Fold:
Amino acid sequence: MKHMNSEVKEERTSNKKRIDLFLVPIVLIAAFLNLFKIWTDEYANAYYTAAVKSMLQSFHNFFYASFDPGGYVTIDKPPVVFWIQTISAKIFGFYGWSVILPQALAGIGSVLLLYVLVKRTFGVWAGRFAALAMALTPIVPAVSRTNNIDSMLVFTLLVATWMLFRAVRTAKFGWVLAAFAMIGVAFNMKMLQAYMVLPAFYVFYVVATKITWKKKIAFLTTATALMLAVSVSWAVVVDSTSADKRPYMGSSQTNSVLELAFGYNGINRLTGNTSVTGSGHKQPAQTEQQTASSETKQTSNSSADSSQSSNQRKSSSSQKMQAPGGGNQNGMFNTGNPGPFRLFQKGLSDQISWLLPFVIFSIVGLFAGVKFKGPYTTKQKESLFWLAWLLPVAVFFSIAGFFHQYYLIMLAPPIAAFAGAGAVALWSVYKQHNGWKSWLLPGGILTTAALQVYIMSPYVSSIGVAPIAGVGALGVILALVLAVRKQRKNSLTNYLGAAAMVVLLAMPAYWAMTPIIYGGNSMLPSAGPDSSSGMGGPPSTATNSKQSGFNGMQPPGSSSGNSSSNNQMQPPSGSSNGGQMPGGSSNNGQMQPPSGSSNNSQMPNSSSSKSSSSKRKSGGMNAEVNQKLLNYLTKNNTGEKYLFATTDSTSAAPYIIKTGKPVMAMGGFSGSDPILTVSKLKAMIKKGEVKYFYLSGMGKGGQSDVITWIKDNSKEIPSSKWQSTSSSAQQGPSGNGTLYEITLK
Structure:
C-alpha cells in the first residue's frame, strides 16, 4: 500500500510540472489532421445529419434518436453520440462542421489520453511517440473528420482505460466501477463493438491488482453488473415503451433495441449474415447486374485510362457477386478476404497496418524473459493490457464477414501504444547489446519498411515511384547501418535511430493527410489517394472531393441523361447494395458527383452563393434537393404531417436537412425494415398524414406489398410538374422515380 501511495504522490507531482513542449506540436498535428477544412463538408453523413436535424426539434426525437422529424423511424445506432452532436448543433448552429466537431475533438483527445497512459509507465519519449503514432494512423483522422461514431467510441474507451489504470494504482474500487460504467456508456454509442476491449480490462485487473481472488471476483462481478445495467438502460426504456408511442427501431426486424444490438450490430457483423437485417437484404442477381451496368457507364466516362477503368469495372462487377469476404481480394466493402493475414491485404493495410511489424517486434522485446507465473513489472502488466486489446480485435477483423474499413480505428490505440513503448524498449536493449534482443530494433525497422513498400505499391500511379523507393531504400540502409554499429555508442547512432522512426512515420503521415488533400467521404471514411471514393483501396477514378454522391444516384426527380432509353426497373435509391449499412456504400465504394450544384442543395444557414462550388456535399447519399419537386410538394401540401414518403432514407435525408419537415422513409435506412403494412398506411392516409409517395424502384423485403398497393391505388403525377430537367444531372443506376398521390375518404 505504501508503494501505491508513493505512486499517487509521484503522479500528482508530475502533473504540476510544466507542459511537455514536445507534446505541443504533436497535438497541433492532430488538430490539423482532424479539424482542417471540416467546414467544407456541408452534409457530412447525411443519414446521421438528418437525424440531428430531427433531434433538434423535440425532446421525443432527441431521446429516441429519430431519423425524421415525424418520429417514424430511428437511426440504426444508440443515441449517445448523436445527443452530443445535437448539443453541438444547438450551441454552434446546424452546420456540417458542427456535427463533425465532437468527433474531431475526440480524435485529438485520444492522442492526449494515449500520451498520458503510456508516458507514466514507459517514459516520456514512449508517450510522445505513442501520441504521434496515434495522430498519424491514417484511419484515425479519416474517421474523426466525419459524424460517424467510431472516433468518439475510441475516446470513451480510452477514458475507461485511464480509469482502470488509476483503479489499480490507487486500489480504489470506485475507479473500477467508473471504468466499467464508461464501457456501458460506450455500448450506448455503438453497442457490442464497445465490448471488444473487455478481455483487456479483465486480464489486466486480475494480473495487476494485489488483492485476494475472492475480492477480485467480487469486484469484477459487481463492476460487470453495473456495466450491463448502464448498457441496457436506454434499450430497456425504449423496448418497454409502447410501439405506437415511439419511432420504429431502425434496421431491426422486431422493433427492438436489444435485437438490433445482438443481431444487426452484433453477431451479424461476425458471421457476415446480412440477408435478414435491415440494410443487408439480398437483391436479385438481375438487379445487381443492372447496377453494375450503370456503374460501368459512369466509370467509362471518367478521365482514367481505358485499361485502368476496365480493370476497375471488372473488379467491381465480380465483387458484387461474391459472398462477404470471399472470392475477391478486395472482399466486401474492400475489406479483404478472411484469414490470418487479412490486415496485410490491400484495403485494410493502408488504413491501420503501417507499423504492425514494428509492433510485433516490440511485443517480443517487451515480453522477452517474462515467466508465466510472474512476478510482473508494471511495464509488463500494462503491455499485457494492450496485447489483450490488440489480439481479440485483430482476430475479429481477420475473420469477420461484415464491417467497414473505418471500424479499424479500434486497433489504433494498442498499435500506437506498442509503437511508443516498443521504440523505447527496443532502443534500450539495442544500446545494451543484450544478445539476440539487440537485433529486434534493426529487424523491426527493416520488416516495417518492407511492409510499407508493399502497402504503397498499388498506388504507384498516384504517388509515383520515388516515395516507395525512398522508404524502401532508407529503411534497408538504416536497418543495416544500425546492425553494424551495434557496438558503437555515439551521437551518430542516436541520430540514426531517430531517423529510422521518422522514415517509418513519413508515409503514414502522408496517408493521414489524404482526406484533406484529395477530399474525404463522410459516409464511408477511409484514407489514401482515393479517399474521396471511400474505398481506401488501389486508386480509382474518384479523386475529386466533390465526387461524393451515393453510387451515382440522383436526387428524387432529377433527370438522367439516358434514362429515357433505359426503361428498366432499378433498386430503390439507397438499397442497391446487398449488405449495405449506414456509413456504407456500394460494394465497389465508387462515389459519384450528385446532380447539379445549385444553391437549392445547401444546408440551412449556408451563407453564400459560392457554397455550392466550394463545399463538399459528401454525405454519400443523395445530398441534393430537387427544388422543383420540393416546390410542388410544399405548394400542394394541405396539412399532411409528412411532406412525402419514399422507400428509404437515401431519398429522404436531403429533404429533412433542407426543410426540417418530416419525410417518411417507409422501410428505414435501406428500405427493407418491416415497419409499414398496407392497413397501417391506409389509416395514415385517411388521417391525412401523408398523400405523396416518391418511388424509384420495386421496394425491398417487407415493403413489396406496400409498394404494390401504392402503385395500384394512386394517381401518378405528370413528371413535367415536378421533375427537374437540368442538363447537368448525373447519370445514375436508380434512373427516374415516379411521384404518386393517394387520397382516401
Q: What stands out?
A: The longest helix spans residues 213-240. The radius of gyration is 26 Å. The first strand starts at residue 645 and ends at 646.
